[in-house]
Amino acid sequence: MCGIFGYLGKQQAYPILIKGLKRLEYRGYDSAGISIFNEKIKTFKCKGKVSDLENHILQGSTAGTMGMGHTRWATHGPPNNINAHPHKSQHGHFVLIHNGIIENYSRLKKKLLALGYRFESETDTEVLVNLIEYIYLENKVTPEVAVRLALHKVIGAYGLVIQCSDAPGQLIAARKGSPLVIGIGKDEYFVSSDVTPIVEYTKKVSYLNDGEIALITRDTFSISTIKDKKLVPVFRQIDMEIGEVEKGDFEHFMLKEIFEQPRTIQDTFRGRISKELGTINLGGLFEVMPRLVNAKRIIIIGCGTSWHAGLVGEYLIEEFARIPVEVEYASEFRYRNPVILEDDIIIVISQSGETADSLAAIQMAQETGALILGICNVVGSSITRETHCGVYTHAGPEIGVASTKAFTAQVTVLTMLAMLLGKKRKLLSEASYGKFISELQEIPHKIHDILSDNAHFKSIAKQYKDVDNFLYLGRGYSFPVALEGALKLKEISYIHAEGYPAAEMKHGPIALIDENMPVVVIAPKDDSYDKIVSNIQEVKARGGIVIAVVNKGEKNISKMADHVIEVPTTNLALMPLLSIIPLQLLSYHIAVMRGCHVDQPRNLAKSVTVE
Ligand code: AGP
Fold first, then answer.
1. Among 281, 68, 24, which Cα is nearest to 161's?
2. Which of 14, 23, 150, 183 lies in disulfide reach of 62, CB 3.0 to 4.6 Å?
3. Is there a contact between 33 and 86 (Cβ–Cβ < 8 Å)?
4. Is the peptide bond before 509 cis (omega within 30 degrees of 0)?
5. Which residues does ligand 1 sit against, CB inside 6 Å?
6. How many Å lie between the centroid of ligand 1 and the Cα of residue 306?
7. What is the dihedral of CA 64, 70, 76, 77, to 10 degrees?
8. What is the C-alpha separation between 205 and 48, in angstroms, rounded?
């Protein structure tokens, strides 16, 4: 979704805004724009990336110590200069940037058209800025009151920053559904969709909650509700260093994040597992552990890669804790009127913690009395505030739109949870529990080994960078890995790819197989090994190309496959943490070789904050 950023302080706003927008660009990159206040408000905007905006502004004067900027992920109206934000009101009193969707914008637009307002763009956002101006002029109220009154009429989601030409030195910010955080610096303030552009200036922040408005002036800022109830801001310290949001020596954030996984998995189990004591401790779930241990059913909810991690979680929890698990796409769960029982446990998985479908599913489940837990990567994000409690993945900021290190961190948390529940439900012996803990602690080293084979994955990518389709097959724990591998390739290389349970191949997808169809088969030495050998023979019989992911030293499949990717052996339940790594790199290299923008794939955004 869109990235919004505002600055008010003593420094020149322009360079701060441009730098901030570049840090937020992973949220949307269809168009970019800024408005700077210097005696009057100057707005610059254009289709494309922030770098295009810089070129577009070259001649313009950008002096001023207050301003705001926007990077867009188009919802209403195609990416072009007119639909780009900021949007100005008809009589020029207000300029506004928006992240979200105004659902009743066409009704409001009709009313404003009847009042003589004219619209340049196709956006819902331009309707809102004109509504604010209409109320401001009609009621002769302050800019903040005009914003408040206008938001009473709005249905939908928004993160907003607003400037009023009659109120120099004042920024107004408001949120409902879309994330917004305020950074408090020395004599300066920042407003942003997330903390990544703020960390280099200050670590002191205050998150806006749904239904809150912030009024920021040069000396102070205040928060109140849309219903005008004054609030006391809650301050937090950001636990993040600037280096974490920079590429360092890597060409892309995605590659950096793939290579960070040995550390991020270690960070995710640091202080939670102890080999010496043979224990797993998930402090965030301590209070609710009795309910978890006696759960009748667990419902895991997520979207995209988080849903795939949830599917691995289903296999793990059912195998080791023998608790029935259902894995739900948040958007389907939200609208299909599911049966949620009071003693159900709901686990919502989200990297960003801002995915609207998952948030909406939580808000629906809150009415049922079920316990709602979160597995999340962004501290202070909405999902962490809407769930009863949860577990943070410690993967650090994930900037690449294609999720990689967050997936393995989510699977690491689900693995720890399944083992812990298995132990507490007396289904796992002390010995096997201890063995799992030590095998889990070896995973980072084993991933290191796999990463050292990067050149091999690159050579395979070179051979198949021009194909139009890929098929990914796996059984058991490898099925979700097949889905995730296919998603990675789809989203960054734009090659059509499907993940399938290997046995399902015979029920349809086998028709797709010919000499142009690479088939990635994830085939660790597990109970279904013989079956997957037959699946590979069926693919070869149709002239298909087999890229097999096998355990080190495997001989049989290695003779049949066109390409072999070896990964170290570990406990079968931990294999997803290893077998996904080569698939992440395979898709990365194919996308780079196809000249795709790996970190900012077309049409995608890092967190989907509208339904
Ligand atoms: C994955 O690479 C994609 N970026 C996308 O599918 C993502 O997993 C999905 O939007 C869920 O995001 P979340 O984990 O932040 O909720």
1. 68
2. 14
3. yes
4. no
5. 303-306, 350-352, 355, 358, 401-403, 491, 607-608
6. 6
7. 70
8. 30
What ligand 1 atom has the least distance to the C-alpha of 383?
A: 16
Could you tell which of 306, 382, 604 is best to mutate to test the pocket of ligand 1, judged by most ligand atoms within 8 Å of the CB?
Answer: 306
Nearest CA to ligand 1 atom 5: 304
Q: Report whether 508 contacts 535 (CB < 8 A).
A: no
Structure tokens at 470: 């890929």
Distance CA 273, CA 386 (A): 27
Beta pairing partners, 280: 273
* Environment class of 120 (CB within 10 Å of its CB; exposed 0-12, middle 13-18, buried 19+): exposed
What are the C-alpha distances in Å from 200 to residues 15, 42, 204, 209, 225? 13, 26, 11, 23, 29
Residue carrying structure tokens 């080190």: 552
From the candidates 47, 446, 490, 606, give the one annotated as an active-site residue.
606
Q: 372 — phi, psi (to 5°)?
A: -115, 115
* Core vs surface per residue 284-302: b (16+ CB within 10 A) or e: bbeebeeebeebebbbbbb
Beta strands (DSSP E) in 87-164 are 87-88, 94-102, 156-164
Classify strands 298-302 and 325-329 as parallel, antiparallel or unpaired.
Answer: parallel
Contact 450, 578 (CB under 8 A): yes
pLDDT of 275 above 90: no
Task: Report which of 134, 254, 110, 100 is spatially closest to residue 608, judged by C-alpha positions.
Answer: 100
- In the structure, how many helices (H) and strands (E) does the chain have? 19, 27
Q: Which of 2, 46, 303, 376 is catalytic?
A: 2
Q: How far is it, in rounded angstroms, from Cα 22 to Cα 14?
A: 12
Residue 242: other Cβ atoms inside 10 A: 11
Q: What angle do CA 397, 399, 401 make, to 5 degrees?
A: 135
- Gap from CA of 415 to ligand 1 centroid (Å): 20
| Mean predicted confidence (pLDDT) in 16-44 | 94
Question: What is the separation of C-alpha 170 from the centre of its chain, rounded to a whole number of angstroms?
Answer: 31
Residue 153 CB contacts under 8 Å (≥ 6 apart), including other chains: 104, 108, 131
Which ligand 1 atom lies nearest to the CA of residue 403?
2
Ligand 1 centre to CA of 304 (Å) is 5
Distance 225 CA to ligand 1 centre (A): 30
What pTM value is reported for the model? 0.89
Distance CA(321)–CA(415), nearest Å, equals 11
- What digits encode the pLDDT tens for the residues 442-465? 999 999 999 999 999 999 999 999
Confidence of residue 75 (pLDDT cuts 50, 70, 90): confident
Region 532-560 average pLDDT: 96
Pocket test for ligand 1, best of 490, 608, 609, 610 (most atoms within 8 A of CB): 608
Q: Is 606 assigned a catalytic role?
A: yes
337: left (phi over 0), alpha (psi -120 to 50) or beta: left
Taking the CA atoms of residue 23, residue 27, residue 32 and residue 33 in that order, the dihedral angle to the nearest 10 degrees is -70
- What are the Cα distances from residue 434, in Å, to 269, 407, 445? 15, 24, 18
